[in-house]
Specification:
The chain is an alpha/beta fold. It has eight helices and 15 strands. About 25% of the residues lie in helices and about 30% in strands. Strands 3, 4, 5, 6, 7, 14 and 15 form a seven-stranded mixed sheet that branches. Strand 9, helix 4 and strand 10 form a beta-alpha-beta unit. Helix 2 crosses helix 3.
Length: about 300
């Protein structure tokens, strides 16, 4: 089968389009015929060696995947050959940038039925990140106020929709380019961070500050003042710490997305109910994945890109 792999960390040039052996599922595993994998920023970081995730070389990237089960290992219940599924694969194991991939059965959920199967690869890790940041790490409740910094990306729009569904009041920062999409996702207030000072624009304190943007540490620290006593700061910026304020009992959490099939199945239901809208900016063939990594390394990837074998 065909796959894209890297045999060492480095620049995009380490990615190779290769013929490799088709994998065989073991106990508790299935093999998927891949419909698509999704490109994420962490794929770029893992390839470059910037993220502390240990992989075995050679490594196939692409931990978000959709596909059809074509082989089932022993001790797998609830899934059968022919099932259309999606998964957030373990990041240290081979991913879906291939024609076939092995997936642990406990990471699988039935794919949404309202969107093409390939597009569904765009959902798992980003939607789980938004959900876990808001509710598992942030403890957001109905009636609370949340400020989402950098809401114009895919995670931000999912976070807006999920927070609104939970009954929260959402303030979002966005650029003019993404303001309309942020408004469509349901934000109650939108702050154009290119023109307004967020510290001045937020007039009442929030219960939760969710940062999704690569802001300067001093700016991030200043934003903590917008959080009420006893509130929470949550951030997806794993490369820098999230500030807190112990004197006011404001805690901070860095989000490391976790596989959770039960929560992912709930998110799939929300897609089929129309609460969450899948965003696919571009679809490329597997042969173009190295070029996509080169774009990402130069900061030129915008939106969500899926990769089809």
């Amino acid at each position: 089968m065909k796959a894209v792999r890297f045999h060492e960390v480095g620049g995009p040039e380490v990615l190779q389009y290769e013929e490799i052996d088709q994998p065989i599922p073991s106990v508790g595993q299935v093999r998927l015929r891949v419909a698509a994998s999704a490109f994420n920023a962490a794929d770029n970081g893992m390839r470059a060696g910037f993220l502390p995730i240990q992989v075995v070389f050679p490594h196939v990237p692409g931990y978000d995947v959709s596909g059809t089960i074509d082989a089932v290992g022993d001790d797998v219940d609830g899934f059968a050959v022919g099932d259309a599924v999606i998964a957030f694969l373990p990041m240290a194991t081979d991913g879906g940038a291939a024609e076939y991939v092995i997936a642990p059965a406990d990471a699988l959920v039935a794919a949404p039925t309202s969107v093409p199967l390939a597009d569904a690869a765009a959902l798992p890790s980003v939607a789980l990140t938004a959900r876990q940041a808001l509710f598992d790490d942030g403890g957001l409740k109905a009636g609370e106020r949340v400020l989402i910094v950098g809401a114009g990306g895919v995670v931000g729009k999912y976070a807006i929709a999920l927070a609104k569904r939970a009954g929260a009041y959402v303030i979002a920062t966005a650029s003019p380019r993404s303001a309309e999409a942020v408004r469509a996702a349901g934000a109650d207030e939108i702050i154009d961070h290119t023109k307004a000072d967020v510290l001045d624009a937020v007039t009442d304190q929030v219960d939760l500050l969710l940062n999704l943007a690569p802001i300067e540490p001093d700016e991030f620290t200043a934003l903590v003042g917008l959080v009420r006593d006893g509130g929470v700061v949550v951030s997806t910026t794993a490369w820098m710490p999230a500030p807190d304020d112990a004197d006011r009992d404001v805690r901070s959490v860095i989000v490391f997305v976790r596989s959770d099939a039960e929560k992912l199945a709930e998110l799939v239901s929300l897609v089929d109910e129309g609460v969450l809208a899948l965003e696919v900016t571009r679809c490329i063939p597997l042969t173009e994945l190295p070029a996509l990594h080169a774009e990402a390394a130069e900061g030129r990837v915008v939106g969500k890109v899926i990769v089809v074998p």
